[in-house]
Amino acid sequence: MEVAGLLRHGVEQQLREAADLSYVQFQLLARLGLDAPAGSLRMTDLADGLVHSRSGLTYQAGLLEQAGLVTRAPSPDDERSIMVTITAAGRRRLGDVLPGHVDVLREMFLAPLGDEGVHALASLLAPVRDHMRASPPRSATRRRRTAPPEG
Amino acid sequence: MEVAGLLRHGVEQQLREAADLSYVQFQLLARLGLDAPAGSLRMTDLADGLVHSRSGLTYQAGLLEQAGLVTRAPSPDDERSIMVTITAAGRRRLGDVLPGHVDVLREMFLAPLGDEGVHALASLLAPVRDHMRASPPRSATRRRRTAPPEG
DNA sequence: TATTGTTATACTCTATAACTATA
DNA sequence: TATAGTTATAGAGTATAACAATA
Predict the structure, then answer these.
(1) By CB count within 10 A, which of A94, A133, B73, B139 is most buried?
(2) Domain spanning B2-135 has what CATH number?
């Protein structure tokens, strides 16, 4: 947890200073610009795994739209859905931060880990990630030992 | 990062629901109650590694004090320092959450990892943690590739 | 002058609930 | 009735800068 916390802090600083992006904003942008085939995704698909509430995504996507880095338009397929699309400016911004972002990752995390360590870590954590994705996130909620102090 | 994020989210939920503690508050309490010999530490030592700003610690310690879980008193040795001490109520609260906390850790993280995995992970990450602690946290700041958009 | 800690302030982010609209 | 998304709102947490006091 300490490693992840320090890494995240370092990453957030670089993203903020180099491109004025929050961590979530960067991830949304990266998902659109690097993973999404046509540079667009439905809000829900975009949110997947990045945010814990719908409104949180609306908020962050709104900021990206205000900054001109994405556009939002109703989907032709399903009129309930909104397609979020990365703009040219968004791709530019993403390209601008990416090298520095990778630098931070490498210097803080990948270098001390070494190539072998990186692979070992990935093998170790992949099943954990799958387990976490699969299990109901509320399991922790139901299984408390002590009664809440409210009653 | 995803594993750490999900784990932290699960942990935070349990801490909040079982004992009305934030993650940081729990860590402060744990450091005082489990690590500190006499249950007390100077503010600065208490903060070490848990918080990224002094005021952040003052805020969290203030909440703990309000809740009667710690006390704050000037240090006899150095009158600039404040000794934070866990109270009986604080130890009780800590004892109340701890079992559930460990449950969450085990179910989300330790179990899917397995005993061997836990050890392997610890060996892998220990040097990374040391590297991160040692290297100036601002390295990311100075090493930016793109000029900040301000000027 | 450097260190310890607090305060004032402003801001970012998150989450819940109520709501609209489409399927 | 369920799904997609927004909005209103409220609260928690964080950080910066200015500050007071001690070393």
Answers:
(1) A94
(2) 1.10.10.10
